[in-house]
Automatic annotation (TrEMBL), chains A, B, C, D:
Pfam families: Inos-1-P_synth (PF01658), NAD_binding_5 (PF07994). Signal peptide: none annotated. This is Myo-inositol-1-phosphate synthase. It comes from Actinomadura rudentiformis. Residues 222-326 form the Myo-inositol-1-phosphate synthase GAPDH-like domain. GO terms for biological process: inositol biosynthetic process; phospholipid biosynthetic process. GO terms for molecular function: inositol-3-phosphate synthase activity. It comes from the Bacteria. Belongs to the myo-inositol 1-phosphate synthase family.
């Protein structure tokens, strides 16, 4: 395949469950071995858009662990995430991706300043892009969630930030250092998790300076997805929500990370935003996130919604969502890679609010209702083909 | 209060739980005793529309039973449907409505032809309208569900139908005879249940001839409401629904009626339509409707949705809806009365697809997704004020 | 009614929801106005036992608040806990109970040593007993839950404890001070909550010295009740439980108290005991207790149980319990009053493991499976009539 | 391995999912490759009993289809019922079982009278027994459910039945013809399904005449299992059950069979018995059994229980059971084979009420509560070792 037509997908956390499922899926769907179920951009609503074909995506990335992708794929097959019959068929593509993974940023091993690390990260991405002569490369962070960032002067000013990076210390959390490197390399960037990433004012300045777009944060793949489909129903029917309580049980790496209170705080903040956004007020009730290691790759959410109908009569809606985390996330990684690449092609820079459909905490978008977000997405992506770059919502 | 500014609400099944809750609610909300929760047309999205004020609605109707409304209200208070503290406050308004209820059509008592009955029904409605000098009166059928209608020549041709009515026999089911009378009286008509009602081709001709609008069928107040909020989520995310099974447990009169297989057939047909409509194909799985007398005025629906994600991984969503049937239906009766009156004021005749938001089987509308239906409703009702009558969708 | 045949029920927290429902229920059931549903000792399995008749129970107690019982009963009627029609019928009996309520122990108002307070509490109970010439009086703590007790020398030795009480300070938490007074007054005592109460070694010595029995702790009225019915099923079928997670949503006073982390710790400890006891090992998974004020008197528990079947196949059981807290607790208060009085009559002293059926953390009993506990209870209570005092299990 | 110590397990429906999982499991557990989870007779409570070791069970059976067992095992591995890693390890044992499967009774192919067929079936079993020199062989019917039997004279009288068998026609349903053959061959027999099987008076006479025991009917493996654990909780707590409604969604062969109304009638009858048995009265509410082919080997049951607490307050318990049918059934097949063989060894003949723990409709036992059934089982099996044959309950 000639270069220039290819699109690079550079994943932070490239050996994790989500990244592995993404690479397996792109290969399997691209080769026509399975239906493109759950790939939004492959659905009929997207026909006529000129997004990069799945089989022209090239994968690489950073990670701090070394497990080979085919081994990770086997583990996921045993957990029921990947159909065992696909393993042989995608083996070569996985090995290709495996050779494109570079050592990630490990704060504990760091001896130099973060500026030096950033140089190395930029260099890794640029060489990948050159090697594969990709038309565009999108960097997507699918690594573990980090705690929210405290306010600090250096985050507000790019110049000050770059001075801080040049000194010893760790001014930026990993997600934001990766975002810094991605933007510096001229790549679109996606905050797939609630980590700070590009959501730092100084990095927004950087994105605009380098004329690259970015999207985020925190892909909605389960409980929050359902919330943003159901809350508008209550609002449209003028039903008064008294309380909305939720419990999320999850295992795998995600469960363990979120057992850490800092990361859970990030997640909880971004999980609570859509409901308050849709209802226009805070709502009583907590959202628990429990690490249940024996759940493995699966997650279960139970939500209990108490609402009032006519004359104040109390009623209840409960739902239980049982899903496979990586299988829910991976197709959205593919969607976002294609859409951000397309946005960059169309000359968009800075935040992409039109991609809010995918996120719990959509940068630049006040609309949290799922269907209106979908309409925004569709109208934008079809507009691109008509030469409308669509500068925000 | 002077006439002409008032709007009549003529309910078929005027002594039932839904009608009683509607009359109590209009009085209580109209007097500011309770918030207008669940009244869609009272929400902020409707500000600026010129709908009839709730306290200018006048109630009357037909019924085949004789229980006084205040007695029904007491029963409903004991069941938790109506707050007991409201009973005294609305007593006079209930008595007013009670005196406006006339003997309904009882097929078993019928000795004459249906044409004669229709004359009497028309006369009841016209006298009510004159007595209260209402600007407009809307007839709404909230009586028990009837089985679906078999195809028959006379249903397709108004002239033939009227010949049949003039002969002995019962060519029309009660709901359609009421619809016939309402349209003949120049009143807007609403099929709140899945009964045939105005959904007979000859009656559509009649509605257009008399220049009156009609709306229906089968208000979505529970399981189907949630379905039309959730199914679009699966569609927008390209998740493949394998099966959707549901069980509805209900008591009260509704439960008993639907235990009858004919009526249940009507209900099931209209309940299944939205899902097939949204997904564009029939879906595996049954919808049960069980009569559980001890549930009283309450209903519980459990739905089990099996879906496939990326790479075919099977996942599940379940929900349980626990609601009070009359409290869910009554505010929609008020909404529909106001909206149909407004449509008639604006000169609309024939079916009103813009009201599809309220119905499981929306006449004239192919859109079953709840939020897009809501957008259609809002855009239409606001357009009316700008002089746009909006001839269909 | 002549004295001596009457049984006193002295409630700590005598103006709370549980106490009020108990007093209303005893009057209403005793007068034959409602069926004795949920009263275990009124069921057919107890026929032939000679327990105090419900209409010969006399109520009194301590509380730190002053709301009259009839007012509390009205509030509970509005919340659906008490049928409104009973209010008039039980009014006089409630007023009788109301006049028997004395000021409780309020640590903040305390100026003297706890020994002096204890004297006053003993005196209140003794005078009540004399006034009504009760054959026996049982003291039951239905007040708010307290945090667990730290280990301390004085709790292990009665003499040291009494020295400490005589000095300024608050060596005992309220529940244990009430237990101390009850035992000193020669009354049987019940820890209905997880508070320390009589579960202090020195108080066990006191109970035996005064030859009075006691029972506890923490009545199982919802989630834990179901757990102790379901966990034995998994054990008997050799199914391997991987994780058991639970979320409890509750409002009312109980919700607010348990929002306090200390009290929640007591509750969680006693909630987790049965599962580990039945399975013989600790099980993965958390139990959340959330205060959701808008739930009012109602509570909802959702439990998610992941288990392994043959060949390690993973399966799931989930349940949702929706109950009314006071209506679940009150009949057990009546059962325990009657059973502890009967035990004392039969000469039992110290802990009553045979009442473990009622408790999450049954004193002196290692059996946590509900049905075997029930067999123990039945066999013991019927044995009493045959002159078998049954010294423990 | 020498004969005489081996126990034969002759399965009717020997190539079905349950039979295949049973054979795979016996081999895998017997070889120590997996834990004996879900095998009741392998649990600690059974230590000291002298049941046939799992690795000394020999499998054979009848079936009307020809798919080789290893192929069925592969299908089940793909569905997640059998861990793929076991396939190679058990292959030889499966092939052994495969060679022992004989053509079953197919009513459509039948040309002779049923007596002739019975001779052939007896012969198949006897030759198997001789080939393997088994000490005892137990015949267990795990084939598709059949409709209930109408009353008929010939079912009440063995002589009349045998005359009927000798004439053309099909007096017996397949399950009962197999039972007839098993008993004639001197083998213990188990009705694992709700089919008539041995539950025909004439066959009881036959069993006693041949001095063989039999057990049944309809193993409880899901919804009913949970029912018999939960209903006793309500009874012991004197909570009044108003309604108990259930919906079962199942795929696989079982779903398809039960979609047939006759077989569903058998199943529903046996599913409803325990609840009425435990509560001592019929209870409002239906139990649906839906065939949802896309559920495959998995089944989901949702139960909704409305109950009344103190003072008539209505409350609710709901549960959702998600299980794998064959994995739930197979270990019970092993348990029953071992227990019935042991009963025969101990000289028991006729029905075995002590095995009621395993069944929805336990022959000869009025106790439906799970834990008391378990106590009956344990006490009986341990009694056998002390030389107590235990002639019924």
């Amino acid at each position: 395949m000639s270069g220039d037509s290819r699109t690079g997908v550079w994943l932070i956390g490239a050996r994790g469950s989500v990244a592995t499922t993404t690479a397996v899926g792109a290969a399997a769907v691209g080769a026509g071995l399975v239906d493109p179920t759950a790939c939004v951009t492959e659905s009929a609503d997207f026909s006529g858009t000129t997004l990069a074909p799945l089989n022209e995506l090239v994968f690489g990335g950073h990670d701090v662990v070394g497990t080979p992708l085919p081994k990770r794929a086997e583990e996921l097959a045993r957990s029921g995430v990947i159909p065992p019959r696909l393993l042989d068929a995608v083996h070569d593509r996985l090995m290709d991706a495996d050779t494109e993974i570079r050592a990630g940023y490990d704060a504990d091993d760091e001896i130099d300043c973060q500026a030096a690390t950033a140089e190395r990260l930029v260099d890794d991405i640029v060489r990948f892009r050159e090697r594969h002569r990709t038309a565009r490369t999108v960097v997507i962070n699918v690594a573990s969630s980090e705690p929210p960032l405290d306010k600090h002067r250096q985050y507000a000013d790019l110049e000050e930030l770059e001075h801080a990076l040049a000194r010893p210390g760790r001014p930026l959390p990993p997600s934001s250092l990766y975002a810094y490197a991605a933007l510096r390399a001229g790549c679109g960037y996606v905050d797939f998790t609630p980590s700070p990433g590009a959501r730092v004012p100084a990095l927004d300045v950087l994105a605009r300076a380098h004329r690259v777009p970015y999207a985020g944060s925190d892909a909605k793949t389960g409980e929050t997805l359902v919330k943003t489909a159901l809350a508008p129903m209550f609002a449209a029917r003028a039903l008064h929500i008294r309380s909305w309580s939720g419990t999320n049980l999850l295992g795998g790496g995600d469960g363990a990370t979120l057992a850490d209170s800092g990361a859970r705080r990030s997640k909880s903040l971004s999980k609570d935003r859509p409901l308050a956004g849709i209802l226009g007020r805070p709502v009583e009730g907590k959202t628990h996130i429990d690490n249940v290691p024996s759940m493995g790759e699966w997650k279960t959410a139970w939500d209990h919604i108490q609402f009032e109908g006519f004359l104040g009569v109390p009623m209840t809606l409960q739902f239980t969502w049982q899903g496979c985390d990586s299988a829910l996330a991976a197709p959205l990684v593919l969607d976002l890679a294609r859409l951000v690449a397309r946005a960059q092609e169309a000359g968009r820079t800075g935040p992409l609010p039109e991609l809010g459909f995918f996120f719990k905490d959509p940068v630049g978008l006040n609309e949290h209702r799922l269907l209106p977000q979908y309409e925004v997405l569709l109208s934008w992506v079809h507009g691109l083909n008509e030469g409308v770059a669509g500068e925000g919502v």
